[in-house]
Amino acid sequence: xxxxxxxxxxxxxxxxxxxxxxxxxxxxxxxxxxxxxxxxxxxxxxxxxxxxxxxxxxxxxxxxxxxxxxxxxxxxxxxxxxxxxxxxxxxxxxxxxxxxxxxxxxxxxxxxxxxxxxxxxxxxxxxxxxxxxxxxxxxxxxxxxxxxxxxxxxxxxxxxxxxxxxxxxxxxxxxxxxxxxxxxxxxxxxxxxxxxxxxxxxxxxxxxxxxxxxxxxxxxxxxxxxxxxxxxxxxxxxxxxxxxxxxxxxxxxxxxxxxxxxxxxxxxxxxxxxxxxxxxxxxxxxxxxxxxxxxxxxxxxxxxxxxxxxxxxxxxxxxxxxxxxxxxxxxxxxxxxxxxxxxxxxxxxxxxxxxxxxxxxxxxxxxxxxxxxxxxxxxxxxxxxxxxxxxxxxxxxxxxxxxxxxxxxxxxxxxxxxxxxxxxxxxxxxxxxxxxxxxxxxxxxxxxxxxxxxxxxxxxxxxxxxxxxxxxxxxxxxxxxxxxxxxxxxxxxxxxxxxxxxxxxxxxxxxxxxxxxxxxxxxxxxxxxxxxxxxxxxxxxxxxxxxxxxxxxxxxxxxxxxxxxxxxxxxxxxxxxxxxxxxxxxxxx
Amino acid sequence: xxxxxxxxxxxxxxxxxxxxxxxxxxxxxxxxxxxxxxxxxxxxxxxxxxxxxxxxxxxxxxxxxxxxxxxxxxxxxxxxxxxxxx
Lengths: 589, 86
Prior knowledge:
The structure holds two protein chains of two kinds.
Chain A: H1 3-24, H2 30-35, H3 42-53, H4 56-69, H5 74-98, H6 103-110, H7 114-146, H8 151-201, H9 206-209, H10 221-231, H11 244-260, H12 262-265, H13 274-292, H14 295-310, H15 327-335, E1 338-340, H16 357-365, E2 373-375, H17 380-387, H18 392-430, H19 436-459, H20 465-489, H21 495-517, H22 544-562, H23 568-577, H24 583-587
Chain B: H1 5-35, H2 37-40, E1 44-45, E2 48-49, H3 50-80
Antiparallel strand pairs in B: 1-2
Helix pairs in contact in B: 1-3
């Protein structure tokens, strides 16, 4: 069977599965729509959380980012997993005990202020929309390659599918669809990695393969990789090159962002008990770790394979002739994500670091006039099975997996946005007497509008997948996480403190990002150069979320000290969410 | 409930447990993975050093252990102080 038909078959079959599940688990009540009726088993909830949270950025971009710089991008690995520790220890059990439907609802009640609730809604929508853009970009990349349609058509198909199962199923449909999506995406990620690990190191488990010996040369894989890349002027793969402060702040920003992202937090409202919320966070991390422990191996091995393809006899020998390039290069050239430009006209592909001054003399002696191959890091995972010449069904499976990752996260985010609009804005403020039916309808309309906005932004994306996503984490870190944490761990932080804290964290972070990335991400409107030299104190706009979070904590605590303490019934509320007993009663609405 | 001394003791034990866990969380990631990496550079593992392993895999494994340990200890504490769910 042709590759194209195989792709269609795999992608089509998985889509049918998701839609089938959505119909089977469609939501009839608001409790089912917002919180899946609170009957989800912690292990299943962990799996759904993993799919919800492992986005196009984790699946498609992350291994490519690690492959391109090696050690320095370990930040993504630690950041996107370390947040679960914060979530499990500081937030999940207490929010489950509080027992309402949305994050802004908690903030509004705890800080006894409708203003706080609306500020939380604004923070939630800004962070979630920024995040959805990254998912939609990922959907475009995956579709354009595997279904051989252009980016825009791919996006429209993706949006239609999400619309169908998220709008119909609500949290209940999304949860069970995500369990299926998790299975698809983890198989799609690990199967090619196992094959490649066997080919390169003879070890079946990729995380162990990464630290094993390279079969062809007999030296450890990482030693061999370091040797190959440094011979071509690239930075040593395992060494630390970036600014240490920035690396720490970026990791921290991803961690607290993970714990502050509303679509992840609301997953812990769906389990039956407080103790289940604790276990569920652990299970989520186990399922996430299956992918995250494989990713560094995929990154290093993909880099090794790419180097081997371009220099079949080693870095010192003749490079690949353009005419003899393998099919996968041809396939990806069509998408524009892989580019070859024969700068010195010798018909061969030269791939080296043309920015390295130390290497310039060697390049000139070889008659090279610049690196001729540009590989977008986003294609590393998707192209990996082709690079390693794996069977067609594996390639089709990866296509289905990439789409599962992007669609599951998009659905989770849209659900978080729609519950905030219908439950917090409409029912909570504008029309408190709305019927349950009316509330469900408004949730579905809000979701449809959110999908339309997300699709439009996906058509006009401001950056590539992982970067946009990193910005969303910064915004969530600076606004939502500190407010939730202070709401639980302090009885002294009051309404004014919380509101001013969230606003200062959010605005500070947004302005800092816009100054470098352009206002509302419009290119050319930035005031400062987005380069390490242009960053204030060397802090990248991607890392600024952790500074925004500290500002949030500082402002909230200082302002609260200067103003009246919260009333007695709020202190009682805080005392009561700190103990698990009685969580059942709290869920009754 | 704030008058109830056993609940305050419960909360204090919780804070203590959370603190220990978060110190470990910071040591394996920010510590071994980034800041203290030079200290571990002498310990070689599969073509690189232990710091690289912590940054790319070790910290994730420790994170999982921390969460399950916390969940197990907390659920035990809930029972000890009689605040678990019936």
